[in-house]
Amino acid sequence: MTDIATSMDAPLVADATDERSEPAWAGVISLALGVFGLVTAEFLPASVLTPMAADLGISDGTAGQAVTATAVVGAIAAPTIAIATRGFDRRLVLWGFTLALILSSLLAAFATNLTMLLAARVVLGIGLGGFWSMMAAIALRLVPMRLVPRAMSIIFTGVSLATVCAAPVGAYIGDLWGWRVTFLVAAALGAVTLIVQMASVPRLPPQSVPSLKLLFDLLRRPSISIGIVTVLLFVSGHFAGFTYVRPFLEKVPALGIEAISLILLAYGVGGFFGNLVGGFIIERSITAAVGLGTFLIAVTALALVAFGSNDLVSAGAVTLWGFAFGALPVAVQTWMVRAAPDHAESTGGLIVATFQVAIAGGAVLGGLFVDGFGPLGAISYCAAATLASALFVLASRRSIGV
C-alpha cells in the first residue's frame, strides 16, 4: 500500500526551500492561538444572536447574515489572498490576519446598525479565509517536514477548543455583561495573540509566486485532484448529516433539548481527542488517517440509520462521529502540504475553497433529503458519501505517487 507520507519524504523536502532543522514550537502555538481567536469570533453571533438583533433593531434572520457574510468572504479570500500579498513577508501577512480579528471585533462591539455589523464580519472573513489558506504553509516553514502532522494537530487543537467553547462561553458572557462585551473579549484575545506572534514567528520571506494560472496547474497534479475529490465527498456527506442531526435526535430517539445539548457537547469533545489522535496516525500514514476517518463516519451514520431509535446508540454514534471527523481536517491539510510544498499557500487556498463549496453543497443536499425522506434521509446520504470517500482513497492510492 503506497503511503503518501512515505512517498513524499525526500524528493519533496528538496523542493521546499528554507526547511527548518529545529522546530519553532512557540510559533506553532501562536498559530493555534490565532485560529482559536478567529474561529471563536466567527461563531460568536450565533451565541448572542437574539440580544444583538434586538439592540440593533433588526430581525433574528437578518442578524444571522453576519455569519453568512463571514463565510462568503472567507471562501473568496482563501484562494486569492496569497496572490494579493505575494510580495510581503509571510510573518507580516500573518500579523495582518490577527489585526483583522481585532478590528472586526471592535467594529462589531461598537456597531450601531446592520451596515457596521456586516462591515465587521467582512473584515473578519478576509482574516479568516487568508489565515486558513496560509496556515499549513507557515507551519511547513516553522517545523521540519517530518513534524508537520504534529504541528497541524497542535494548530487544529485551537479549532477544536473554539468549536467546543465559543457558543456556550459567548452566551454566558453575553448574559452577564451584554453581547458587546463578548466581542471586546474577542478583541482582547486577538491582541494577546498578536503579541505572541510578534515574539515567536521568525521572518518568512515569500518563496513562491502564487497566481491564478498556478491554481489551475496544481489541479492537474494527481495528488491534488484526488485530494479535492476526497474532500468534496466526505465534507458534503458530513455537513449534510450533521447540519440536520438535531432534527434527527428530536424525532428518531425523541430526545429532549438537555440530552441533545449534552450529546452535541460530547461530539465536540470527541472531535478534540480525534484531532490529537489523528496527528499521531498521520505521522505514519495519511491514507490510513483519511480512509479510517471517513469509513468510521460512514459506520456511525449507518448505526444511526439502523439503531438510532436507541438513546445510547445515538449518543455513542454522534460522539464517535465527532472523534472521526476531528482527525480529517489535519490529515487533508497535511496531505496538501506534502503534495505541493513548493506551493503550499496556493494549495491551502484550494482546499479551503473546496471545503466551503462542499459545506454549502452538503447543507443543500441534506435539506433536500430531509424534505424528501425525513430525518433519516440526510444521515443516509452522509453514510453513502463518506463511504464513497473512503473507497475512493483506497482505490486511488497508487495514483497519488508524487
TrEMBL record:
One of its GO terms (molecular function) is transmembrane transporter activity. Pfam families: MFS_1. It is a multi-pass membrane protein. Keywords: Cell membrane, Membrane, Transmembrane, Transmembrane helix. One of its GO terms (cellular component) is plasma membrane. InterPro entries: MFS, MFS_dom, MFS_Efflux_Transporters, MFS_trans_sf. It is found in: Cell membrane. The chain crosses the membrane at residues 24-46, 66-85, 92-112, 118-140, 152-173, 179-201, 222-242, 254-274, 286-307, 313-337, 349-370, 376-395. The keyword Cytoplasm does not apply. Residues 27-402 form the Major facilitator superfamily (MFS) profile domain. This is MFS transporter.
